[in-house]
């Protein structure tokens, strides 16, 4: 939001947030409150408190917002039971079966054998947790968090063990959430997000649309799948794993008189990177691809709605799939939306609550987007799961 920054989003409101220019969403699922809290912290930094956040009353008195002008920016809490877009793998039996098949494969067994001696040496530091390669992400998660927040633990564990655990976790998670086939169930973490992503990009590229900035906070898993299906990990193997805390991807929407609108892929891997760097994507070493190429590449793998997801995942028991009966449920491209018939008595009890819910959704639909960023946010509470992250969509349209 700094006009002197090379990443400044043109024509975005500075100081006071313009709710028609931004959309903020945060995963409120398996990682608990960490991701949502990270989103709150981010928007506080982008739009800090200001005395300009005020109103003049009829009697001439000027009233500044609470907390010296704290800006209450709307953040949509994305609940997995109501929306599949940010946690496409949860309760997906097909994904679970694919993971189990991977664990039984000779490829996995060979890596498991190679790592067995290290895991035996690491076991005394795991507090009784199983030192099994199938559990590699949770092992690294525990070791990393303890090494940062527990001085006794950090002084006892051999320094090289943390990095070794990270390397094995990278390998484990990359092959669980990626595939040579973009349509594989392994990439479901990004396939459920593609409809939102392409919508955001199209709106940013549309000069008549007020959308300027979109921020979506999510776990690290969509990162891995995104890097896989866009060819980023293939062009740069450092992306074949879990991003660092506070990492972010910025997909910039730019325009050129000669080439038209295009996407630029930028990445900043946490606080250790001082600035964003541009990396190759979809076979383009420059990091720039035409918007239409980007959309045409991703659209065929998109999971567009809840019925499609339920069928693909073999789910008839949760996340709204159990209610998919004719006339009872409607689903849109971003997840689950209730629209079924209820009895007159039921309508009497539900009316007020449903009105509030629909108004909240309508407000979010009316909010705009800008640049796309994907990032992993460090948990702010000691002992919080290290696997939480943020997916930040930031978009801007400018001429180059």
UniProtKB/TrEMBL annotation:
Keywords: Membrane, Transmembrane, Transmembrane helix. InterPro entries: His_PPase_superfam, Histidine_acid_phosphatase. Gene3D superfamilies: Phosphoglycerate mutase-like. The chain crosses the membrane at residues 349-372. GO terms for molecular function: phosphatase activity. SUPFAM superfamilies: Phosphoglycerate mutase-like. This is Phosphoglycerate mutase-like protein. The lineage of its organism: Eukaryota, Fungi, Dikarya, Basidiomycota, Agaricomycotina.
